[in-house]
Amino acid sequence: MATIDPSRFRSTLLSIVRYGFGRTMEQATKVDIFNSVCFAVREHIIDRKIETEKRYADNDVKRMHYISMEFLTGPLLANNLINLGIYDECRTIVNDIGLDFDDLIEFEPDPALGNGGLGRLAACFLDSLASMGMPGFGYGINYDYGLFHQSIIGGYQHERPDFWYNKSSPWLMRMSGEKAMVPVFGRIEDSEDMVGEYNPMWVEWKLIVGRPHDIAVVGYGGKTVNRLRLFSAWASEDFDIQIFNEGDYYRALEDKIRFENISKILYPSDSRDSGKELRLVQEYFLVACAVHDIVSIYLNQHDSFDMFHEKVAIQLNDTHPALTVAELMRVLIDLHFVEWDDAWQITTRTLGYTNHTLMPEALETWPMHIFKKVIPRHLQIIQEIDRRFMSMIKEKYPDDPEKPRRMSIVIDNNGEKNIRMAHLAIVGSHSVNGVAAIHSELVKTRLVPDFYDLWPEKFNNKTNGVTPRRWILRANPLLAQLVCDTIGDGWILDLGRLRELEAHCKETAFLERLLMIKRKNKVRLASIIKETTYIEVDPESIFDIHAKRLHEYKRQLLNAMNIIHIYFQIRDDNIIPSVPRTFIFGGKAAPGYFMAKLVIRFIHGLAEIINKDSKANEWLKVVFIPDYRVSLAEKMIPGADVSEQISTAGMEASGTGNMKFAMNGAITIGTLDGANIEIAGEVGEENIYIFGHKVDEIESLRREHDADRFLNSSPALKRVMDAVRSDIFCPDEPGIFKPLYDSIVHGGDYYCHMADFQSYTDAHSRLANDYMDRHNWAVKSLLNIARTGKFSSDRTIKEYAEEIWKIKSQI
Ligand code: KOT
């Protein structure tokens, strides 16, 4: 671990304030101070970054490149200090100067360059790679606008832009002289024969310039510093001059603006396909910049492509970067004159593809005409890949004429041709993985069974994980301290060692300390709730938290239905609950997702009525904390008694919030879906509340759906559904919640709210009863902490490294 020389740190800091920002300490703003502290910390990071790069180059190591449209890093100052091992020292020095260190830490804005699970997973992976000393790097887009900020007005979600670029992050280092030139648009001069004999002519293309910006990724212990490279799009100067010289000044400017828009915004749809041309250009831009960079790094140390797949692994984070298949082929064939067959070997041996969703609406397909316009040469290459693949399929399955249609990359949909990105990614990779055991099975048996039949050896599972450095050490310092006091600090890099805590599950003093820590975290959360919503909540009540993107399959509405059920029991049935409960929500809805936004409005409707009802509000409260983001998650998760993981079985690929809550001692109420199944397997069935239909039951449930049967057989459900339809929770806006009722009662209840209602409410009653026995609850909580070591992203990354990437630790 590093140390810092206090007087040197202090003088560096003062001189950055003065010479970097032109101010004395007295004049400096909070932004100046924050940036200066980060710059002073950067000095420590950069020395190690340079040393790491030298170590990798000297050993000519195999490198893994993780290409992802999203990296949801969250604030970096605290984590960098923790990983460097200088958090406490730095805190003392900064406070001694007369500044407020804790305030500065809280001041850092979240870089929100991701929507949710997929982007946050990428950030956890980078932390694990660096912490284990592995040569693994991220490639992404330096969006000017990250995920929107959410505010709530009259119960409705409003979106405000997140112009994080304006805040000129001190962590972003612009790397001049390493730009990528990316051809786009234009046409193919001769489209007849495109391989082998001669190179086709891709003409009249325009050039986008990709400028790299690096964020250092500091591994725990500070030995290894990798990088996340984010590209910004610019118009090429040369190209502008040409049009300017033609005299068309305005057209030249329009083009310039058009190109610079490419890295302007992150698309805010989580698990949904945007289908916009600009999105495809973004995907291509990222892929082209990354491939350019990866090939340049390789060619720095090698003069042929013979060793490429032994020195380079590339992982595609879902299909968003699937164009890497075509771009790597193009670069090898057109720029380096590699023969098609060799190029194909290199490409498939290099690439791996991770699938993160089975949901049809999230599976990317692009109309061929957009490809033709944006990347005509890539279209040509994809068509050739498909042609060869189809002839292989026809030869292998001569008796199944439907196979080609089911498996082709290019598909004819009533006259319009589409490109199926998942098929492109599977055909072009040597490894295809899902992100939890059940999900990986469903990928094989339901999503792409034909591909599994053809290449069973390609398919594998890599259950997700999360980094304990951010999600325990940073988010829950009190718990981290208790664990260190009890079993030492070995768990930070070997989370399985948390099992050693089990030995203390009978020690009352230990359990008391655990309960006290939870209480403190709840008090901290209660004060955030007060600040952001003006609602007062009781830290003695059960903090039941449902925090994640709003989506019908995640069933925040089922949670709301149970709340209504409890409310009516208190109000109308005079049933006093065993324990007071606070239901806490957080999460953003995609701006165009009507139903998800309506659920937010509904939760606010519930809060408005229930929190004001004096008969109920000492037993039941509902709060929605706006603008859920990484920094807020860091405060919500440690304050949870109960973690809601209630997706319809088969629909949540894995989930990672479920892991974070459990390792912070929350008890899960959840369905047998995604990684919940594996969490249940680890913690044991007495330490989790599992309810609901299983994945094999869902299909027949849907087929045999009969709303009346459910409503007539359950008066409790009927009462709840009647309330959804009525205006009880929207007295001033009658009728607004009708679509929620209709989707469940008249719309076939695709997400099985009614079918799972009874077992969900039962599970909640059991949980509330169990909570009263504080000792027993503390044991459950402890066992959740002790038994969730499997869900460290270090374990996940080791599996990827050994089984797919073949990369090694360099420390
Ligand atoms: C978004 C758009 C298209 C395809 C996939 C997505 C996607 C999937 N975004 N986030 N996910 C989530 O990824 C997490 C990390 O693997 C999973 O834990 C979670 O279940 C997915 O929903």
From TrEMBL:
Subcellular location: Cytoplasm
Principal place of residence: cytoplasm
Cellular component GO terms, alphabetical: cytoplasm
Organism: Desulfamplus magnetovallimortis
Gene from which the chain derives: glgP
N6-(pyridoxal phosphate)lysine: residues bearing it: K660
Family: Belongs to the glycogen phosphorylase family.
One GO biological process term: glycogen catabolic process
MF terms in GO: glycogen phosphorylase activity; pyridoxal phosphate binding
Protein name (record): Alpha-1,4 glucan phosphorylase
